[in-house]
Specification:
Belongs to the universal ribosomal protein uS10 family. Pfam families: Ribosomal_S10. This protein is α+β, with helices and mostly antiparallel strands. It has two helices and five strands, in the order βαββαββ.
Length: 125
């Protein structure tokens, strides 16, 4: 279970760069409004997937067409507080954006950093 004061990393993924930038700005504004320390949004490298197909399956082998799919990623770091979590749960997120929460907490017994990954994937296919 998350303890107040733990750090949270919010990872956003989307094919639409404008949608991911808008939701990242909304999350940052909500967290700042609640008084949380916010770092980001930090852009991560864009993953490009290129698919090449033949235009005609039976002739003109040199005639090809390429399609590209880009996955844009952002990460936002913040301090965990009950107010900020309640405020984040009220946000409306577009279907094109996938969100993952990574909670980093310090264990008092071992004093090492444990990463507890809680993924909340909002994907509608």
């Amino acid at each position: 279970m998350a303890i107040i004061g733990d750090k949270v990393k919010i990872r956003l993924e989307s094919y639409d760069h404008s949608a991911i930038d808008q939701i990242a700005q909304k999350i940052k504004d909500v967290l700042k409004k609640e008084g949380a320390e916010v770092v980001g949004p930090i852009p991560l490298p864009t993953h490009k997937e290129i698919l090449t197909i033949l235009r005609s399956p039976h002739k003109h082998k040199d005639s090809r067409e390429q399609f590209e799919k880009r996955t844009h990623k952002r990460i936002i770091g913040a301090q965990l507080s009950p107010k900020s979590l309640n405020a984040l749960s009220g946000l409306t997120i577009p279907n094109s954006v996938s969100i993952s929460l990574i909670i980093e907490s310090k264990d008092e017994k071992k004093s090492t950093l444990n990463q507890v990954s809680k993924k909340i994937n909002k994907k509608n296919y």
